[in-house]
């Protein structure tokens, strides 16, 4: 299977956002990874950035896999359990490929900005031309590298486009400090502003760094 690699961890091609995020997080930071899955990102950050990492994961299977990797992870739900954390507990709060699976994405992002100095959000772009083409030409819900599930077994309940997310940031008065789109081959683009339409059409995944 093709993959992208760092010095420590091999990352699958459908999760190129993990390498991009690892390059954003600063050395020795306090990090909370929300919806951390099997702990792949936390492990990458511990090995390449020496972070003080914590995780929250809704599935017991994911928690068990994280603990087996020696990670500090608890079972919890992003939609309800972030209120338990005090303000500015972390330097970075990360939500990677999980925004679309939450029931209250706006509330989750607002909580991230409360408990972290920076919030990093990555998500698949439902505005990508391949997704649009699947709907327009085939009349079916798309299955792509970044959206690999069929409509009947997907965990995703709130699909959004890059433009949708930018509008959400405006609504909650969040400042976009850094942003990038990731393409199928792992390339990233960091131009923004007038290029938003281009990002929205051709970007496969997006990564945003937010602050208050």
Number of strands: 10
Poorly predicted sequence stretches spanning 5 or more consecutive residues: none
CATH architecture: 3-Layer(aba) Sandwich
What is the CA–CA distance across the termini?
40 Å
Individual helix count: 8
Overall pLDDT level? 88
Radius of gyration of CA atoms, rounded to a whole number: 16 Å
Could you name the CATH homologous superfamily?
Answer: Vaccinia Virus protein VP39
Helix fraction by DSSP (H/I, runs of at least 4): 25-40%
CATH class call? Alpha Beta
Strand content is 25-35%
Structural class, by secondary structure, is alpha/beta
Shape: globular
Q: What sequence of helices (H) and strands (E) makes up the elements?
A: EEHEHEHEHEHEHHEEHE
- CATH fold-level name: Rossmann fold
Q: Give a quick account of the main beta sheet: strands, pairing sense, barrel closure.
A: 8 strands, mixed
Summed up, the domain count is 1
Give a brief outline of the structure.
33% of the residues lie in helices and 25% in strands.
Structural write-up:
33% of the residues lie in helices and 25% in strands. It has 212 residues and is of the alpha/beta class. The protein has one domain (3-126, 157-211): Vaccinia Virus protein VP39 (Rossmann fold, 3-Layer(aba) Sandwich). The strands form two sheets. An eight-stranded mixed β-sheet has the order 5-4-3-6-7-10-8-9, sandwiched between helices. Strands 1-2 form a two-stranded antiparallel ribbon. The longest helix has 11 residues, at 105-115. The protein is globular.
């Amino acid at each position: 299977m093709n993959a992208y690699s760092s010095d420590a961890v091999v990352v699958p091609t459908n999760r190129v956002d993990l390498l991009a995020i690892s390059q954003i997080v600063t050395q020795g930071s306090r990090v909370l990874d929300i919806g951390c899955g099997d702990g792949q990102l936390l492990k990458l950050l511990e090995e390449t950035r020496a972070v003080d990492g914590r995780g929250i994961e809704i599935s017991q299977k994911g928690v068990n896999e994280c603990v087996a990797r020696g990670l500090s992870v608890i079972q919890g739900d992003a939609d309800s359990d972030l209120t338990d954390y005090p303000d500015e507990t972390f330097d970075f709060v990360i939500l990677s490929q999980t925004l679309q699976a939450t029931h209250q994405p706006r509330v989750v992002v607002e909580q991230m900005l409360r408990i972290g100095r920076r919030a990093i959000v990555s998500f698949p772009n439902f505005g990508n031309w391949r997704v649009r083409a699947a709907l327009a030409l085939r009349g079916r819900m798309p299955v792509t590298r970044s959206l690999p599930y069929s409509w009947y077994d997907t965990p995703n309940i709130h699909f959004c486009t890059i433009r949708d997310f930018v509008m959400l940031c405006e609504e909650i008065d969040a400042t976009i400090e850094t942003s990038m789109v990731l393409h199928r081959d792992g390339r990233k683009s960091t131009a923004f502003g007038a290029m938003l339409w281009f990002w929205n059409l051709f970007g496969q995944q997006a990564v945003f760094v937010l602050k208050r």
